[in-house]
Design a protein that fits this description.
- The protein has 13 helices and 14 strands.
- The protein is α+β, with helices and mostly antiparallel strands.
- The protein has a 7-stranded antiparallel beta sheet, with helices on both faces.
- A hairpin with a 7-residue loop joins strand 1 (about 1-5) and strand 2 (about 15-20).
- The radius of gyration is 22 Å and the shape is globular.
Length: about 325
């Protein structure tokens, strides 16, 4: 049975309920992304789905009522931001299986597969790629020279998942309580841009270094100076204590400044910067390049540990990135 309702009094909200797998596949595919779906027991399926428009973003609150395995096709020019509210939600990405108990961003072109248990409830936000690009270009003054990619498991701040959920709850509550007010396109855009800023500034991506430079416009002088030292040097033995001494502040002041204004610890910032440099070096390297030599050039001495850091951030090992580079046709 299909129950679909869009009332005139709730212009920014839609509800959908169905026990028909074909209707579910078609409807969810239109709202989020085309996909294939397998389920353990189709007779138990009882989909409850609510959509909330915050143009250009859209929030989808979904429960399937049975175990489902979802294999999305190409996302086109959209990002999907997943936050699990209850039950178990697993994500296969880059050959790595993760229990999604916090936050996961699927970038366009990613190959992933989801598993949601029967009691799983999930909030997924669909945001066009051009919303991020326009924000970076217009607000942050960052030139867009390559597609934006969020790294798996890469939220720099431990607070991000909780803050993200509260933001979504607040938006949904506003839509439910004041549907006419929230139908205003400018208000919707303002809410969407808050989501974009939150993700760009607090979830690791291939523009994180440039975004951190933008954020330093409001950072105190010692954070800006420390950041300049990190970007200017890639010494393997550089430490937070060394940086604090050279800047002229205590280690604690440096750590607090980085957390408050950059959303990451100094150690995390150094690691992220080196990983970004390594990733760019691998993508631009010659066919006969050595991963070890490129790591050394980026100030990386602990090869095994950084290989795992790289895998967590990019979803594959450095050698996999280099291998893909070698297979890439010339020109």
């Amino acid at each position: 049975m299909l129950v679909f309702q869009r009332t005139e009094t709730l212009p920014a909200s839609w509800d959908f309920h169905s026990r028909d797998p074909h209707e579910v596949l078609e409807y969810v595919g239109r709202r989020l992304a085309p996909h294939r779906m397998e389920m353990s027991n189709p007779d138990q399926m009882a989909v409850k789905l609510s959509c909330y428009d915050l143009s250009p973003a859209q929030i989808v609150d979904i429960q399937y009522g049975t175990d489902v395995w979802i294999d999305p096709g190409e996302l086109g020019a959209h990002f999907l931001v997943h936050a699990s509210l209850s039950g178990r939600h697993s994500v296969w990405s880059g050959g790595v299986l993760r229990d999604m108990d916090d936050l996961h961003i699927t970038s366009p072109g990613s190959r992933i597969k989801y598993h949601m248990t029967a009691d799983c409830r999930n909030l997924t936000v669909r945001i066009p790629a051009n919303a991020f690009e326009e924000y970076m270009s217009r607000v942050m003054n960052i030139p867009i020279n390559q597609p934006l990619v969020f790294h798996p498991g890469g939220h720099a701040s431990l607070d991000l998942p909780a803050v993200w959920r509260r933001l979504l709850y607040h938006s949904i509550e506003q839509i439910n309580e004041s549907p006419t007010l929230m139908a205003n396109s400018r208000i919707q855009r303002q809410q969407s841009m808050m989501m974009v800023e939150l993700l760009l500034s607090n979830h690791s991506n291939n523009y994180s270094d440039q975004i951190a430079l933008y954020g330093n416009d409001i950072s105190p002088w010692h954070v800006r100076r420390a950041r300049d030292l990190i970007h200017g040097e890639l010494e393997a033995n550089i430490s937070v204590t060394d940086i604090a001494n050279r800047v002229g502040v205590s280690v604690r002041s440096l750590q607090n400044g980085f957390r408050q204004f950059l959303g990451v610890t100094p150690v995390g910032y150094i690691r992220r910067h080196r990983l970004e440099k390594l990733n760019q070096a691998l993508l631009k390297s010659d066919a006969d390049a050595s991963v070890t030599e490129l790591m050394l050039e980026c100030g990386i001495m602990n090869f095994g540990r950084y290989a795992q850091h790289y895998r967590r951030q990019y979803g594959c090992l450095p050698s996999d990135t280099l291998r893909k580079r070698r297979r890439r046709p010339p020109g």
